[in-house]
Amino acid sequence: MGYRISHPQLEIELKFEKVDKLHIHEEIIPEMLDHLTEKIKNDACIKHPVIVDKETLVVLDGMHRVAAVQRLGYQLMLVCLVDYMNPSITVERWFRSVKDGGNASPVEILTKSGYKLEPNTREGIEKLMKERKAIAGVLTSHSAHAVLGQEKNVKKAYDRIRDIELKLREAGYEIEYDTVKDALVKLDSGEVSAIIAVPMISKQEIIDTALAGEVFIPKATRHLIPARPLFVDAPMEWLKLDLKKANELLVEHLSKKRVKHLPGGQVLDRRYEEELYIFE
Question: Among 71, 200, 212, 219, which residue is least crowded by beta carbons within 10 Å?
Answer without folding.
Answer: 212
